[in-house]
Amino acid sequence: MNILVTGGNGQLGCSLRKVAGMYPQHRFVFTDVPEADITDRACIAALAEKHAIDLIVNCAAYTAVDRAESDAETAAKINVQGSEVLAGVARERGIGLIHISTDYVFDGESCHPLKEDRPTAPQGVYGRTKLAGEQAIEASRCNACVIRTAWLYSEYGNNFVKTMLRLGRERDELNVVYDQVGTPTYATDLAHAILRLAERGVSGFEVYHFSDEGAISWYDFAKAVFALAGIDIRVGAIETAAYPTPARRPAYSVLAKDKIREAGVRVPYWLDSLRECMAILSVPTEK
């Protein structure tokens, strides 16, 4: 297949670049804003034509959760209009689309792993625009697969793991919320999941959930990062109310992975993947 990847310079796009060599049977065209404005239909159509694209993987998104609360117009342009454009080109050319979405489409009030058919109820601008993007894709009637994920991290860009490593070297103590529960997702694992589904074929409209396996709090996650890195720091557990942010965070966002497993996708345990990432970051890890 000829695969067009949008958002190629982001965490997930870089992770797809990293693993692309393991899929030599496919040809990848990586783009980001300078090469492919996903809100410009003529631009996307021209790229699809030029490279005889068989599948679009959309990793481009407005992901600044807090900033979205005061910049709803830009968030909607990228997350909704961009999704409409990509879906329209996919429909027009009869090609597939794999689109990355988020746990923020839910209200975060569950206490059981979230299945794909659970009713959505986003609590902020980011979640609402991502859900609207999903709905635009479904309404286009293109062949599409939406993958919702959560707590993404990698050796690329800015993310929780790299922030904890930096703060752990700068401070003697740190407070982290303990009442938000989810599962870390190593972007490399998600990249493999995307390509596994791509090879399975994209037909109709499907929604899948993918994160790594397990359930922990941000506090647990931070403690694990410090333990693996050998960083001696006092970590305090605080409630979300003690750390107010413009956008509300889900209290519970553990995603159920039964459906994606049935599709033949491997789901690694979060701690194993964290060790792998930190080894790449050249951080000492426990045996």
From TrEMBL:
It comes from Alistipes hominis. This is dTDP-4-dehydrorhamnose reductase. Residues 1-280 form the RmlD-like substrate binding domain. CDD domains: dTDP_HR_like_SDR_e. Its EC number is 1.1.1.133. SUPFAM superfamilies: NAD(P)-binding Rossmann-fold domains. Belongs to the dTDP-4-dehydrorhamnose reductase family. It holds the Pfam family RmlD_sub_bind. It is an enzyme of class 1 (oxidoreductase). InterPro entries: dTDP_dehydrorham_reduct (IPR005913), NAD(P)-bd_dom_sf (IPR036291), RmlD-like-bd (IPR029903). The gene is rfbD. It comes from the Bacteria. The keyword Metal-binding does not apply. Catalyzes the reduction of dTDP-6-deoxy-L-lyxo-4-hexulose to yield dTDP-L-rhamnose. One of its GO terms (molecular function) is dTDP-4-dehydrorhamnose reductase activity. Keywords: NADP, Oxidoreductase. It catalyses: dTDP-beta-L-rhamnose + NADP(+) = dTDP-4-dehydro-beta-L-rhamnose + NADPH + H(+). Pathway: Carbohydrate biosynthesis; dTDP-L-rhamnose biosynthesis.
